[in-house]
Model the fold of this input.
Amino acid sequence: MALIAGGFLLAALWSFLATELGWGSALASLAVGVLLGVIAALLIAIGSRRKHEMPSTDDLKREVEARVTLAADAAAAKARAEAARVMDMAETKAHALMDQASYRASKLASDAEQKVFGTVRETARAVGLSGQQPRPPRHVFTQPSLNPRPTTVGSAGMAKAIGALAVGITLAAKLQENRRRDGDHDPDDLM
Done:
């Protein structure tokens, strides 16, 4: 519709120039042709201006390489952050387990020590080494033909032996606990 309207406007312009102004058909056609030629030249000049240059193959390669490098750096940074988070979580859990194991070992040693000392106290009471009323000895050893009456093994010597045994067991448990603490850490791991 616009082209048809443009055609009628052009015909009216030509008629006006040719009859009303008296230019005749040759000058009217020449004027319309020049006008259309100027409009066409303006449209070509405006349309041929480039807004930006088309990138070359090398430009495209450099752009792709830059984007790939940025994406790889971002992915590596994210992976490092995730690995650090997982390592921190594992380290926290390991410390918690080590603390719990250390607590249980100390409690076990303490309980064993209390049981040993309790046994020594009971034995000392049984053989009459404490301030309480002594109990009669449980084990009586007899020598068949040398002495007809029953005799007891030296109660003072037995109490000393049991006390030494208790102290030895306690010291061994504490030393073993210290060895475990010292042996668990490799000095190279701390660096």
Remarks:
- Helices lie at 2-20, 24-48, 57-127, 155-183.
- The chain has four helices and no strands.
- The two ends are 85 Å apart (CA to CA).
